[in-house]
Amino acid sequence: MSSATIVAQRVRRTSLARKHPAVLMGSLGVLAVVLSFYSLSVGATDVSMSDVFKAVIGDTSDQAAQIVVQFQLPRVLLAWLVGTALAVSGAVMQGVIRNPLAAPDIIGVTKGAGFAGMLLLLAIPGLPVVAVVPAAFVGGLAAAGLVYLLAYRRGATPVRIALVGIAVSAAFEAGIRFLLVRNPLDVSAALIWLTGSLFGRSMSSVLEILPWVAVLVPLIVVWARKLDVLGLGDDLAAGLGEPVERTRRTLLFFAVALAAAAVAVSGTIGFVGLIAPHMARRVFGGRHLASVPASALFGVLLLLTADMLGRGLAPPLEIPAGLVTAVVGGPYFLYLLVKTGK
Amino acid sequence: MAVSASSVGTVPKPSVDATHKRPKIVTNKQRVTWVALVLLVLLVAGAVWGLSIGSQHIPLTQLPGAIVKADTPGELILQSIRLPRVVLALCVGAALAVAGALMQAVAANPLAAPEIMGVNAGAVFVVVLAITVVPSLSGAPTILLAFGGAAAAGVSVMLLAGSGRGRVSPVRLALAGVTASSLLISLTQVLIIFDENSTDSVLFWLVGGVNFASWHDVRNLLPWLVLGLLGAFAMARPLNLLALGEDMARGLGQNVERTRIIGSALVIVLCGAAVSVAGPVAFIGLIVPHIMRRLVGSSYTVLLPLSALGGGALVLYADILSRYIKPPFEVPAGVVTALLGAPIFVYLARRQKVTTS
Amino acid sequence: MSLSATKVRRSVAVLALTVAAAALTACGATASSSSPAAGAAPNADRAAAATGVSSSVNLDSCSKPTRTIKHDLGTTTITGNPTRVVALEYSFVDALVAVGMSPIGVADDNQPKRIIPALRDKVGAYKSVGLRATPNIQVITALKPDLIVADSGRHKAIYAQLSKIAPTIAYASLNGNYQQVLDSEMSTAIALNKCDEMKQRLAEHGKLMAGYKAEAPADENRKALFVRASDKGFTGFPPKAYTPGVLSAIGIGSALPDSGTDASVSLTLETLVATKPDIMFIAANDGPTLRDTWAKSPLWKQLPAVANNASYDVDPNEWSRSRGLIASEVVAQEAVKLLYGK
């Protein structure tokens, strides 16, 4: 199986996407916006669409609707940002590691951030919750850094990164379990945070992740060609004049930062970073200039849907979005892979 | 053509190696004997130690009496609490270690291990699902369910990684396994969270341990352990052949598919039984075979039995160590194996000699 | 990269991992529970205005039109008399019923049966707001409450959002001991502007508990063990925890040693035997539990509690989940009935 499968030649495109990629992407964007509004109205107490519009504009005539939107809005915005961050991070990772099974989770970011967050939450209970986010972010970055360091041996080949990443993730997972065992009373709450959800997030979370997405995603799109080149293989890429190791390192840093920010803010929502890039590539082809923004859109759609389902399926019960993405995304992904034989 | 392990020197290395170094099928009889002896001593020492720790001091002179009649409280404690715990630790360790070695043979991948391949996670998920739906379930039926879960997960991962198309790269397999595992673990976690009834279950099914071992558990596990071990030992020679490479093995007349299938079935039996009785104790299947390989080489005729001994010892000592984390109270042994195994896993992953792809 | 440099890198990484592991164990050795040490028995001989409440509760705000309440997550000012109250833990339902009020919303884990009979009759109709771990903010908003009472551990993360809906006070319920429960009920009553009612109720409570204590013979020095039994656990509670605190208030000491800050301890049959409890109160989950397995052992029969027929099965809802003033009276009453047949 050639490792350069990500580059355009071997991936199928639908004819629509081939002719009018921009149109299709635009429609996806519109779909996402429509879904956002719908999401604002769905929940344990339904708010009518007109009230949603009014509240978004700032019309405070219906108090209850206004408050509801006030709480839903951060969640929806977060779905956009976290979905984008995870999906783009996944797209970059799959491009750099040259393996369609790569995801932000495997480079240790998710578990590292989870461990750091839990360490703070459980070991220092008096700490304000605000402190957890930066801690988780730093933890995610540190874990990824550790993976890179350990995988480095005259360069960090994608395969070594993947393998070491899995091992380091397992190590942090062991640390997380240790913490859980030492603090049995808080296990439920900790697991819920670890599963990843948009529950109870406010605008401050949105502001925490916004700068990272706003800066890094455009940067990655600008570097889309470099991702294509990397996908050709180290030798070819170097032959084309690309400083392979440096580019790889930088791109990985971008991916890690995005993923760490996402995890810090919403817990460890899985599968978005794995599936969104796949869907993007199937529809728009393997060129990253198209597939990266498309991944973002698919990521947003996935997360919006997961959050809505989580809230709407069994009210007042709130199923964490991370669980919905796992339950829906996991089997779908397995099916995808078996079907395409990759 | 029968290949007797004790008469084989080094096997000539075939020319092409896609992913990892060919195993050296060298058996140095002296070395093997030494290692076996050391392991046995460790086991006995561990058993003695394990039987002596506890909240009350019980001199081991009471042990014979404990096995025979068990009248005094001391003997009772030895017989009904400490002894089954030691025995279960040994059994679970042996099962998981041999399963790991088998898995690595079948997948031709030194990183293959039950937890990385999702097999353990599958077993746990199915058992927890069953217990959530039918709380009164226990014992033999759960083991059968665990087999089903382990099988489903293992097969899915193999399909996912595209086996049957020739050698599967370690990365692909590991990634596929991790994907399947994390899915199953998320599902399991959710079943447990929303039950909200007991955090003890959470810890047990996430981490695994032999804290509350009873003879009942041992009885449930034993038949499957014996079946799995005997089957594995019988497969040693075919596995040695397989390790030469698929083409070579076929050329020597082996039915490769059959070997793989039987090997996988044995893995499922050993893992499913062990996990349903002690939860997903981590890393045994990965690190014990690896250590044994370093010590005695890759011939499965010695690797398998020694792995069984080594696995038993590891879980035993992990359980003993776990008693010192929060004395005098209990912490599941799985935590210790996870903390010990993780750095070793990292070390192994780094050592993987892989060609760039 | 030279060989020695690689070796150095490797050693650094291994060292880092080892240090991290060591740090973990060191962390583990220090205290990790979050319940502060407070006396297990209420301050019965305090001659101040509220019986049994510790001096940290500020009664100055009582009966003023605007009251400032200090709670675990800050300070909240409440004006007027709240009537629409949402309780996010069972102990807060207890507080409301104790002053003759009824909540409009309760986080009841979607299991109304978990509210104990003593409270259920007086609670009337309420709207469930979901799990205690993740209460549904939309539902709470729709109820238009004028006071929310939350758990300072579980709901720390959403406290800010809850405060936007209505004035919110938070106390340690999950990890709270008997004294803290009484204190929090008094504080809640101050918030509700029902000081006199609560003072009266507390005085009654003091008398009731003293009455139960009197039922015990003067030389009662048996030690009791309270445990939760599940299929994979047998968890004992040390003297400072809630239920042992209640038992100690009626003169029954705890069989477990004072373990410092651990909120609960996991027991094996061996440690149970070593504990030698004279009395056992076992709150077992539905389905087969470890208690059933252990009951078959001769060691079980040799436990002093079992040998003297002093081992009793009790309801987990009453003895453990519902921590409160009224609940503690139920516990005391049942304990006295079981022990002395009165």
How are the SSEs placed, and which strands pair?
The complex is a heterotrimer of chains A (342), B (357) and C (342).
Chain A: H1 15-19, H2 21-41, H3 49-57, H4 63-97, H5 109-123, H6 132-151, H7 158-182, H8 187-195, H9 203-222, H10 224-230, H11 234-239, H12 244-266, H13 272-284, H14 288-312, H15 321-340
Helix pairs in contact in A: 2-4, 2-14, 3-4, 4-9, 4-12, 4-13, 4-14, 5-6, 5-7, 5-12, 6-7, 6-12, 9-12, 13-14, 14-15
Chain B: H1 29-52, H2 63-68, H3 73-107, H4 119-133, H5 140-161, H6 170-195, H7 199-207, H8 215-234, H9 236-243, H10 246-251, H11 256-278, H12 284-296, H13 300-322, H14 333-351
Helix pairs in contact in B: 1-3, 1-13, 3-8, 3-11, 3-12, 3-13, 4-5, 4-6, 4-11, 5-6, 5-11, 6-7, 8-11, 9-13, 12-13, 13-14
Chain C: H1 3-29, E1 66-71, E2 74-79, E3 85-87, H2 90-98, E4 105-106, H3 117-123, E5 127-128, H4 137-142, E6 147-151, H5 159-165, E7 168-171, H6 178-191, H7 195-215, E8 223-230, E9 233-236, H8 242-249, E10 253-254, E11 265-266, H9 269-275, E12 279-284, H10 290-294, H11 298-301, H12 304-307, E13 311-314, H13 316-321, H14 325-340
Parallel strand pairs in C: 3-4, 3-6, 4-5, 6-7, 8-10, 8-12, 12-13
Antiparallel strand pairs in C: 1-2, 8-9, 9-11
Helix pairs in contact in C: 2-6, 6-7, 7-14
Q: What would you say this structure looks like, in words?
A:
The complex is a heterotrimer of chains A (342), B (357) and C (342). Chain A is mainly alpha-helical and 342 residues long. Chain A has one domain: ABC transporter involved in vitamin B12 uptake, BtuC. Chain A has helices at residues 15-19, 21-41, 49-57, 63-97, 109-123, 132-151, 158-182, 187-195, 203-222, 224-230, 234-239, 244-266, 272-284, 288-312, 321-340. In chain A, helix 9 (203-222) runs antiparallel to helix 12. With 357 residues, chain B is an all-alpha fold. Chain B has a single domain (16-50, 73-351), classed as ABC transporter involved in vitamin B12 uptake, BtuC. Residues 1-18 of chain B have low confidence and may be disordered. Chain C folds into 2 domains: 66-212, Rossmann fold (3-Layer(aba) Sandwich), CATH 3.40.50.1980; 216-340, Nitrogenase molybdenum iron protein domain (Rossmann fold). Chain C has 14 helices and 13 strands. In chain C, the strands form 3 sheets. In chain C, strands 8, 9, 10, 11, 12 and 13 form a 6-stranded mixed beta sheet that branches. A 5-stranded parallel beta sheet of chain C has the order 5-4-3-6-7. A two-stranded antiparallel ribbon of chain C has the order 1-2.
